Amino acid sequence: MFKKIEAYIRHEKLDDVKAALKEIGIVGLNVVDVHGHGRQGGIVLSGRQGSYTVDMLPRAQVNIVLSERNVEKTIAAIQEAAMTGAQGDGVIFIYPVDDVVRIRTGERGADALTYEGDIDTKAGK
Amino acid sequence: MIDSGDTAWIIVATALVLLMTPALGFFYGGMVRKKSILSTLNLSFITIGLISIQWVLIGYSLSFGDSIGGLVGGLNYLGLNGVGLEVLDGLTIPHLLFAGFQMTFAIITPALITGAFVERVRFKSFLVFTLLWATLVYDPVAHWVWGGGIFYQMGALDFAGGTVVHITAGYSALAFSMAIRKRKGFGRITIEPHNIPFTVLGAGLLWMGWFGFNGGSALAADGTAVLALFNTNTAAAAAAVVWMFLAWREGKPSVLGIVTGAVVGLVAITPAAGFVTPLAAMLIGAIAAPISYYAIAFRNKRGWDESLDVWACHGMAGTWGALATGLFATTAINAAGADGLFYGNPGQFVTQLITVVVTIVYAVAITFILTKIISSVWGLSVSETEEEVGLDISEHGERAYA
What we know:
The structure holds 2 protein chains of 2 kinds.
Chain A: E1 2-9, H1 14-24, E2 30-36, E3 43-46, E4 51-54, E5 57-67, H2 71-82, E6 91-97, H3 109-113, H4 119-124
Antiparallel strand pairs in A: 1-5, 1-6, 2-5, 3-4
Chain B: H1 4-29, H2 37-64, E1 67-68, E2 72-73, H3 95-113, H4 123-145, H5 150-154, H6 162-179, H7 196-215, H8 223-249, H9 255-269, H10 278-302, H11 310-328, H12 346-377, H13 384-389, H14 391-396
Helix pairs in contact in B: 1-2, 1-3, 1-7, 2-3, 2-4, 3-4, 3-6, 4-6, 4-12, 6-11, 6-12, 7-8, 7-9, 8-9, 8-10, 9-10, 9-11, 10-11, 11-12
């Protein structure tokens, strides 16, 4: 069973999160620039004269698909690396994944998802 | 008597050199991460504001006032008192225009240093440093070389500021980078230039502005101005082409590398521009490229976060240019200059060497002392968190791209 982890984090924490994921053996991931807000609402910026508020804040969306058994470990790594303790640290969503296809080879499922030496193959041995 | 042609050219040259400082902001700004682009542009831009004021109040007088023992200008031009529209002795332009033209050099020099500490400098500390540095380093050294001071009396040649501008800025940048902490993750994560087109734009405007910088340093619309302008272009072209091949040997001919090469060529020819032949200018530019190229490699290897290579590009190419002036200068092309080593006058090379060494030691020492003092009062850098968020938000409350 595969899961997709979708983490919304501060841009300035992306390097730390990438390093933490590499550390635990995550090989494949992708990152998308997104704008949004949670309860935080927005921030005040300075203008030509005086200030103004913007409510859509930039965040990085980090996407990872991996075996269910490694999900908790991965979430813990992201949470530790992405946390500042201030409002706006972000959220992590976890989704079920039906199947995976590697375009180059047509492999399906676990064969399409795992790489030599990544977290899933290591844990499988 | 005032000559309208000379005056017109120096007015235009003043405008060209002033434009180089915002151009430098773009040159540097393209190489930083997008979260600190406004900060980087502003480090150059606000320097125009700060130093223009400093120059009127005290800077011009310390640089070009009546010499006190050859070490610094006196206070007779304080607040530009007595600097008017009458012609300046020995020239054909108004005294006030000379002061204005020189001001644009005083502005760009501390702006050059900012490449050393981008993305982490505390703005308040930068403002104080820049004012003190201009007053204690730039103004005296300008006096030594151009204002009738010790180097001037020795017969040192510095056509447009290889020593006064590039050596002082380049070595002060190195000293400052040793005093301030490195950027977070430096050497561990990839810190990628966020907008190389900005850097290309900045380099192009610098190249154009340099026609005013070197061409204007003739202080007249005459043959020497033409020679300086032509040599400037030739050296920049040679350095850009040589840098292209150096980069190609190690992979692909990087555009960032090519435009950096052009700037390095411009730096190297600055002290020599009005004193050498175009073929010598080509050699000076061509040799400057590997000097700065391998200086960057050396700096990287040592793990120094002198972030935008002010030392490698301005300090090292400026040193080469100042020494090369003592090799290639010839009175055959400019009778008002001097002959260098290759034209039978080894003494000129020795004079150049002395000015280079003294200037480096002085600039490094004063910068070291200033950074120590400012560091103990406010700190030189922002916190790591402020740096991670980016100086645009943390220091200016703004973002460049919505």
